[in-house]
Amino acid sequence: MTKKSELDEVTNIRTLKEIDLWEISLVTFPALDSARITDVKATVPFQDLPLAARDKTWKKREANKRLRSWAGASDGPNAKYRKAFIWYDKEKAEDFGSYKLQIADVLDGKLTAIPRAIFAAAAVMQGARGGIDVPESDRKGIKRHLERYYSKMQKEFDDSGLVPPWKKSNSFSGALASMKDLVETERDFETFLRDAGWSRREAEMIVAKGYRLVLRQREPATLLVESIHKMTQSLQS
């Protein structure tokens, strides 16, 4: 039953804004010949998975192998496999390559969300590593999904600084407060930067110029922000 709708008098297209949906089925021959489904959203419903430790490493290829074994998806994706992702192409649901933004691994036989994977997915949504090719209509749903995990991490790790990059004026600055607990080597530092949305070139430059200053001397976070801003400004000049 339609509760709210709008009719475009120019195109004669009626948009249903609010409905009570009792039943829906996809059929070959619709009762109304002009009825067509033109867009199918494929954001995976929020799973509210338990969180791994904040410093748990994230290696996507190895995690995906464990996921396929756990889900019994060696021959192709299935519903269990899908739970580890945020988005997939419903029209090609049988292809592994159609599943994007994996945020979970299998730990002790249980599907678990990995904070570093969540950071990486959020960075990709901001264009890091080439970004992601998903319908514009799905982007809001993907971000809402990620925001719920950020909220969960804030509470579990007692850190209000864990905020999605699109909700910060400077996505990296807000993440600096937690960096010291996650970074021990130059490689860790570069991975952290890439997950926070910096390009490979930017990350390499910051590591080369700032690693020893930042970590070996334990520079205060406020000075760290200033030093990194100075480094990256030269990249834009």
Description:
It is globular, with a radius of gyration of 22 Å. With 237 residues, it is of the alpha+beta class. It folds into two domains: 42-163, no CATH class; 174-237, no CATH class. The chain has helices at 60-71, 79-82, 115-125, 136-157, 186-195, 200-216, 221-236, and strands at residues 2-8, 13-19, 85-88, 99-102, 104-107, 110-113. Helix 3 packs antiparallel against helix 4 (136-157) and helix 5 packs across helix 6.
What is the percentage of strand-forming residues? Answer: 5-15%
Overall geometric form: globular
Cross-sheet strand order for the largest sheet = 1-2
Detail the poorly predicted runs: 169-181, 217-222
Number of E-type strands: 6
**Largest beta-sheet details:** 2 strands, antiparallel
Structural class: alpha+beta
* Tally of domains: 2
Summed over residues and divided by their number, the pLDDT gives a mean of 76
Helix segment tally: 7
The end-to-end span amounts to 58 Å
Rounded to an integer in angstroms, the radius of gyration calculated over CA atoms is 22 Å
Q: Give helix % range.
A: 25-40%
Helix and strand succession? EEHHEEEEHHHHH
